[in-house]
Amino acid sequence: xxxxxxxxxxxxxxxxxxxxxxxxxxxxxxxxxxxxxxxxxxxxxxxxxxxxxxxxxxxxxxxxxxxxxxxxxxxxxxxxxxxxxxxxxxxxxxxxxxxxxxxxxxxxxxxxxxxxxxxxxxxxxxxxxxxxxxxxxxxxxxxxxxxxxxxxxxxxxxxxxxxxxxxxxxxxxxxxxxxxxxxxxxxxxxxxxxxxxxxxxxxxxxxxxxxxxxxxxxxxxxxxxxxxxxxxxxxxxxxxxxxxxxxxxxxxxxxxxxxxxxxxxxxxxxxxxxxxxxxxxxxxxxxxxxxxxxxxxxxxxxxxxxxxxxxxxxxxxxxxxxxxxxxxxxxxxxxxxxxxxxxxxxxxxxxxxxxxxxxxxxxxxxxxxxxxxx
Amino acid sequence: xxxxxxxxxxxxxxxxxxxxxxxxxxxxxxxxxxxxxxxxxxxxxxxxxxxxxxxxxxxxxxxxxxxxxxxxxxxxxxxxxxxxxxxxxxxxxxxxxxxxxxxxxxxxxxxxxxxxxxxxxxxxxxxxxxxxxxxxxxxxxxxxxxxxxxxxxxxxxxxxxxxxxxxxxxxxxxxxxxxxxxxxxxxxxxxxxxxxxxxxxxxxxxxxxxxxxxxxxxxxxxxxxxxxxxxxxxxxxxxxxxxxxxxxxxxxxxxxxxxxxxxxxxxxxxxxxxxxxxxxxxxxxxxxxxxxxxxxxxxxxxxxxxxxxxxxxxxxxxxxxxxxxxxxxxxxxxxxxxxxxxxxxxxxxxxxxxxxxxxxxxxxxxxxxxxxxx
Lengths: 374, 374
Fold this sequence. Notes:
The structure is a homodimer. By secondary structure, chain A is α+β, with helices and mostly antiparallel strands. Helices cover about 15% and strands about 30% of the residues of chain A. In chain A, the strands form 7 sheets. In chain A, strands 6, 7, 8, 13, 14, 16, 17 and 22 form an 8-stranded mixed sheet that branches. In chain A, strands 4-3-2-1-5 form a 5-stranded antiparallel sheet. In chain A, strand 20 and strand 21 form a beta hairpin. The radius of gyration of chain A is 20 Å and the shape is globular. Chain A starts with a strand and ends with a strand. Chains A and B meet through strand 7, strand 10, helix 5 and helix 6 of A and strand 7, strand 10, helix 5 and helix 6 of B.
């Protein structure tokens, strides 16, 4: 299985950075202290997040990976450790880069209009989410309360969300920062990316619908965003870059590149049953284009920035990345094997997102979360 | 002049926390090392941001303020130090809490519809901004480039923004954090607020207009947000709370409180000339309501969260808080004393925002920025 980095703690001990090795984890702080990880000192790993390691840059990441490949120790059993949030999230940006997802949203919410917003094919639409509520896989998610208004109601009502949803996304974590005022060109953008995590961007559709005009999603998203415990180095995905269909119309020069995507298979499990299978190759905008866009106004990247793809949906019904789409906004309930149906999530539901290359060589692991009642 | 905290550095020395005293600054790290600031140790102040101090909580803030009142040293001349960004910004949230600003935006951009969005009087609308591009007063702001589309054009064009603007805002800085899953009630919300800063939320109106549907502002705002170098403790504003008009309709219970606002006078200087005067008492939603709303879905507050009010506009033409409104989207150019006019900002323009109570006892200082060419 591929190299992946995370943060773990043994009972009563301080958190430290580890590398996944099957069902065990290597203690990188201990290895660095013993001089076995090259130039990187122990303090880079003897801490509660990957950020110091991520800030060290691609040369250091590669050297560390090469050293680890030569180490044949087993490490500590995962059963003996707690896995923690792997990164201190700087800014969290959520994009909207799946054509099928954007089209589905348009068809559901603006049935009489062109499904895609007019700007959609010209730029990778995105917005900032709440970095402070990013949680690690396994953290329960309490159903949020808030305001919602039925279309024909005179006023909003307050209560637990009745349209709680998941969103299957791929997240890219920035390692090497960039300077304020210096846009990062698309062709050099991936140099800044440390690695990839799975993301579940939990969404309360009713809260979101009422609050979003004119400034976008806020409380409908900010209650929790789950990420996987393991960050896979971007280098591992390099062999899985595949050409993507041409972008029409051709984007403006700063976004122009040969279209490509990562061929990573993704699946959604709800209550123990796989309800959707899709692929990151279905994304229209690449992470390189997202970074070129994000920085074209001079905005800087910081170590720990998390750039999520937006919901990854494919063209088939069972390749959609949210319950909103799988149940077509509740009009076509999803049937589960136990005979129950879902329009949106019920209290107690457990959602597991998984990702891996088809050959199994690169495994993103899983992001798991159970819904607790409000 | 009121107590205010900031971060300063003398040439060649490490940054540390200071307290403003006229045109001098007290070195709090040195005072703490000498045991003169009560229980707070030197390390709380011997660092490049206020966050450790802010995390210490209201009791520690008050004790520190009382100790400082008894210290009659002059400190270091401000002319000898550089003032740095005072806080490490965790999440940056920008609200939209001025009724006049929201109405003006509606009248300009949706002239055939009700000026206020339907949700506006029911909740304090807000969205997340980019924490990583918050800069301190005095930092030049380079005109951002990006995509914009004229209404009658077939496609967007790329180039420097032609509608660069400022926004006069008041920012509240979170000191004491809250827990994930535990909403902060309005009546206890200000316990979490360390203090107040001035904010200039620079905006590229043309970029913003093209990108914002459906997920809100992104690159039109993310290139820079300037904050003042001095954070005034919230306690200092307590005597300046004034009753505000009733909120109609009455908000949902979690937002309900006797309406109030801070009576802080604000002004905008453009190229050395005051072009607008307004007051924070013109804000419809209070910071307590903003915090109650922000956390009602379970989202937590972190030390260093910055909550900006949104543009503060008053009812008169010359009390509007943005050039967008002062020039009515460019249709009514603002005339300056030198005979020139402004629709939006020109390269070289300097904008200074100032804030103080009418009696001068509480001074927020200024936030200053000059526009550099793209």
